[in-house]
Amino acid sequence: MGKVYVFDHPLIQHKLTYIRDVSTGTKEFRELTDEVATLMAFEITRDLQLEEVTINTPVGPAQSSVIAGKKLGIVPILRAGLGMVEGILDLIPTAKVGHVGLYRDPETFQPVEYYVKLPKDIEERDLIVVDPMLATGGSAVEAINSLKTRGARNIKLMCLIAAPEGVAQVQQDHPDVDIYLAALDEKLNEKGYIVPGLGDAGDRLFGTK
Ligand code: URA
């Protein structure tokens, strides 16, 4: 079963508080989401492999470490996932970015894929799927299905806030995928919102209603 990591770094928790606050406006919400994504990217890349290289400092030769040529990919689930991309790219500027777009069928309530554009060598990349809210888990499961169908083998899921229901769904359908969160909240309400959550992440990021 996939592991769940909740990043309890004080900076992440502090910024998340203001992201949650209903009085935080679009500009600040976007900036804070960006910053938290950067901090989470710092934590999520802890296990990247290093390799030794020889360089010359002004004083002489030295053995030193660099990241071992691992190819990374970021895959936001449209549209709210877009809000986390730039923050991750600040730390990993060479990562490629794919996109998966899903909408919810109004009759079946199931997520339906409407757009997928991915880096060509997706099977060679370590992918970080990003979506601020892991609610029922339906979109994340479908996005990961979509990536696996196209050859992806190494996938992590990074969200700001999850409900236990969403975590359980991803763990059931994709036991190979670890989940990285800033917070694990209490539950979903009858409208499918995470409680206490932050409201609709897409609307808050883009100033829509
Ligand atoms: N999507 C959101 O944006 N917010 C929620 O609380 C649940 C799903």
UniProtKB/TrEMBL annotation:
Regulation affecting activity: Allosterically activated by GTP.
Cofactor note as given: Binds 1 Mg(2+) ion per subunit. The magnesium is bound as Mg-PRPP.
GO molecular function, one term: uracil phosphoribosyltransferase activity
Catalytic function, reaction form: UMP + diphosphate = 5-phospho-alpha-D-ribose 1-diphosphate + uracil
Cofactor annotation: Mg(2+)
Domain Phosphoribosyltransferase: from-to ranges: 6-208
Keywords annotated in UniProt: Allosteric enzyme, Glycosyltransferase, GTP-binding, Magnesium, Nucleotide-binding, Transferase
Sites where the protein binds uracil: 194, 199-201
Record EC number: 2.4.2.9
Annotated residues for binding of 5-phospho-alpha-D-ribose 1-diphosphate: 79, 104, 131-139, 200
Record pathway: Pyrimidine metabolism; UMP biosynthesis via salvage pathway; UMP from uracil: step 1/1
Family statement: Belongs to the UPRTase family.
Function: Catalyzes the conversion of uracil and 5-phospho-alpha-D-ribose 1-diphosphate (PRPP) to UMP and diphosphate.
Protein name, as recorded: Uracil phosphoribosyltransferase
